[in-house]
Design brief:
The chain is about 35% helix and about 20% strand. By secondary structure, the chain is an alpha+beta fold. It is globular, with a radius of gyration of 23 Å. The mean pLDDT is about 95.
Length: about 450
């Protein structure tokens, strides 16, 4: 056992306690809950690390914590976020979402997998490296924002105002990563874009007795009929001209799918489903998962949804919908296509609101130095070779922070296939967490070379 691992083992209890401290601080961007307090905690921990750290305000947004440490020919940006998803529904948590309880070798807390576990793991890895191996062989720039879970609304503004801090970096370690159902570490090289919209249908100027449904339009039905025009039963998106803007994957992108050992049976068993959409399997399943857009109803609300009955004609109905985007779709284009589609079908009265700024598609070359370094580091740390995904199925602000500046990015992290990010009982396994610390040590060495 080398000095690095000895140091990590000797400080294991402290490292866990530090992670628990991060997770016990609520930081829900959607509710503006605990944001400044969490930013201060991140700042203090980076200063304790010895980094030149500062809070950079962003007008009308959550502040960004920025830090630099180390010297060398290469510069690695480490991107994370300190905000988390809302914890609701609270009744489904086996322990409180802010308790950071440990049981069965796992730490349970809102945000521990997405993204406080990765953030703290990386800070602690740098600490252990400097304490045992000496000066860092490269420069690291931490960018830790507070709005990722609400679409990173102000991160493009931060990049624009602080471009000089970031330009010229050689690679970026992205915030997300996990092990798949067969315990293989997953490395990803891009993200889908996203457009998150609300559809609002309105009727009378107030809720009415449901007897009035004979003569007064019900906005819940208006919304239901409008939604039914967006997709068919086979999951095909029907928005006019939407699919015409979808760029087909290249031969190289399709070839990359051949290298992904996706265990369909285990995934279905883990999710408790009998089949995937359209009974897809093999390459066609992965093609749809990674290279095709989505249109997802995330939430519906109208009228009375409490216990028992209430005969009411609601005056308002709305739906929250996200579109995951692929080249050449953009958030503004999707909103424009959606409005025109609804208007042609007699639903011009339904209001379409882009609730966030949206995020662009981003992909990094599979052969970039930071990707190669991450692959080699994973091979040296984990029992199984990593699986390399050309892109994640999810989204994030990779384009403004990385691709816009010519910085290739790679995602890897400490989650596992049942981490339940965005859901009750979110967790990381502590064994994975400490493997993640070792991975960061190897990534630093490999990328510096």
């Amino acid at each position: 056992m080398d000095k690095f691992q000895q140091y990590v083992n000797a400080n294991q209890d402290r490292f866990i306690a530090e992670l628990q401290d991060f997770c016990r601080q609520p930081s829900v961007a959607a509710q503006n809950w605990g944001m400044s307090e969490m930013a201060d905690k991140v700042l203090a921990r980076l200063q304790k690390l010895g980094a030149r750290a500062q809070i950079i305000p962003v007008a009308d947004g959550a502040p960004v914590v920025y830090a630099e440490i180390g010297e060398g020919k290469r510069t690695l940006v480490i991107y994370d976020h300190y905000d988390v998803q809302p914890p609701e529904p609270l009744e489904l948590w086996e322990s409180g979402p802010w308790d950071a309880a440990i049981r069965d070798g796992k730490l349970f807390a809102r945000g521990v997998a997405d993204n406080k576990g990765n953030l703290m793991c990386r800070i602690q890895a740098v600490e252990a490296y400097r304490a045992t191996l000496g000066a860092l062989p490269l420069k690291i720039k931490f960018v830790v924002e507070g709005e990722e879970e609400i679409g990173s609304i102000h991160l493009p503004q931060f990049v624009k105002e602080n471009r000089a801090l970031l330009e010229g970096a050689d690679g970026c370690l992205w915030e997300a990563g996990y092990k798949d159902v067969n315990e293989r570490p997953v490395i990803s090289c891009g993200v889908k874009g996203i457009a998150y919209v609300e559809l609002h249908a309105r009727g009378a100027n107030r809720d009415l007795h449901s007897a009035n449904a004979a003569i007064v339009v019900n906005p819940a039905w208006r919304l239901t009929w409008a939604l039914a025009t967006l997709k068919d039963a086979d999951d095909n998106i029907l928005v006019d001209d939407f699919m015409k803007h979808v760029r087909a994957p290249t031969d190289a992108e399709m070839d990359a799918l051949e290298t992904i050992p996706y265990d369909e049976d285990k995934v279905k068993a883990d999710l408790g489903i009998k089949s995937f959409i359209r009974n897809l399997t093999g390459i066609e399943l992965l093609k749809k998962y990674l290279y095709e857009p989505t249109c997802t109803i995330c939430g519906l609300y109208s009228g009375y949804i409490g216990e028992g009955s209430k005969t009411v004609l609601p005056n308002h109905a709305f739906a929250k919908i996200d579109f995951r985007l692929v080249p050449d779709l953009s958030p503004d284009l999707v909103v424009d296509l959606l409005k025109k589609h609804l208007a042609r079908r007699g639903f011009a009265d339904i209001e379409v609101v882009l609730t966030e700024t949206g995020e662009e598609v981003a992909r990094s070359p599979l052969d970039s130095a930071v990707v190669r370094a991450a692959i080699e580091a994973a091979k040296r740390v984990y029992p199984q070779a990593p699986v390399v995904y050309p892109t994640m199925a999810g989204s994030g602000p990779m384009y403004p922070l990385c691709q816009q500046l010519g910085i290739p990015a790679v995602g890897a992290g400490v989650g596992w296939h049942d981490s339940r990010s965005h859901a009750p009982n979110e967790s990381v396994r502590l064994a994975d967490y400490f493997e993640g610390i070792e991975f960061i040590r190897e990534l630093i060495d490999q990328f510096a070379r």
